[in-house]
Amino acid sequence: MAGISDASADPAKTPRPTHADVARLAGVSTATVSYVLNKSAGRRISPATHDAVLEAAERLGYRPNAAARNLARGRSGVVLYVVPRVSVGEMPMLVGSQMTTELARRGLLQVQVFETEDDQHVIEAIKSVDPIAVTSLFPLSHGARQAAGAAQVPLIEIGLLPALGDPHLAVGTLRVDYLTSIGHTRLAFAYTGIAKWRALGDYWLEGITRAAHIRDLPPIAVDAVTVDNAVEVVSGWHDDGVTAVCAQSDEVACLVLYGIREAGLSCPGDLAVIGVDANPIGAISSPALTTVEFDPAAVAEAAVAAVLHELGYPAPDSPQFTDIAHLIVRAST
């Protein structure tokens, strides 16, 4: 008994407690421990025995192996994480990596699947992996959503979680508030010219548009920017009185900077530029790019909390939006 107490006091130096440890401390069979911890229906367990098992599990710091439990119930114990095809820097992989670690601590295995133009990869993964939950940073396609619904598993779209505070509006507010605070009222939005990444541009543009509308700013000028048309687009914006550009991503912002230089204009004198996603290229662009940086750890915390809540596990508190993103001000504004 003393050995078990010592294990709970310093779990880092001893093996992880098992069903058998809980059973010995509670003075019951391992089967009874399984019945209590798995909340098995149809088993007659006295209140005293039930409480003794829970108390023993708590004293030992016992954590049930969720993967084994789900396998016993005929489920995979797998959480499927969909990595978006849109360009948002390293954040999806950093978020996914932390989620994998945090879920593994609860006995859950996270498997990643990468989006493509054709959503069939995601649909097939949902069907073949038999996950207990599906997660994604951004809203999935209609077909993928239908597949999750048909599988009758929770679908957690991380970017839409209330804990993240409506990210597209919050990021739009960050950018618009900053630009108006330094005197800019006529704004433009730069889309990517790559069709498969257009959806993320729509997401960020909605936030910029709503933030501008709240502040009674003129309508946002909008255009796609490529290497071929960058000079034409930025020259047109400048001629129309635009003084600041919000780009869909840091990569697109760098194309805007290229267009400004090639058009013989200056940044930020003629056009200020602000990106989003804190790509390392922004720090060495000319001029260095103002951008919005996300905290992958905080995004992952919110995602893990949502997954655990949906699956009925004890869940930690979710972070507030102020923990998720912040502005990095550099020379481009």
What is the top-level CATH class of the largest domain? Alpha Beta
CATH fold-level label of the largest domain: Rossmann fold
CATH architecture of the largest domain: 3-Layer(aba) Sandwich
CA radius of gyration: 25 Å
What is the general shape? elongated
Helix amount? 40-55%
Q: Please tell me the total number of domains.
A: 3
Largest sheet: 4 strands, parallel
Please give a structural write-up.
- The strands form three sheets. Strands 2-1-3-4 form a four-stranded parallel β-sheet, sandwiched between helices. Strands 6-5-7-8 form a four-stranded parallel β-sheet, sandwiched between helices.
- Helix 2 (19-26) crosses helix 4 (47-60), helix 6 crosses helix 13 and helix 11 crosses helix 12 (250-262).
- The protein has three domains: 2-64, lambda repressor-like DNA-binding domains (434 Repressor (Amino-terminal Domain), Orthogonal Bundle), CATH 1.10.260; 76-163 and 297-320, Response regulator (Rossmann fold), CATH 3.40.50; 167-294, Response regulator (Rossmann fold, 3-Layer(aba) Sandwich), CATH 3.40.50.
- The chain is elongated, with a radius of gyration of 25 Å.
- The N and C termini lie far apart (66 Å).
- By secondary structure, it is an alpha/beta fold.
- The chain has 13 helices and ten strands.
Features:
13 helices, Rossmann fold, 434 Repressor (Amino-terminal Domain), 333 residues, 45% helix, alpha/beta, 3 domains
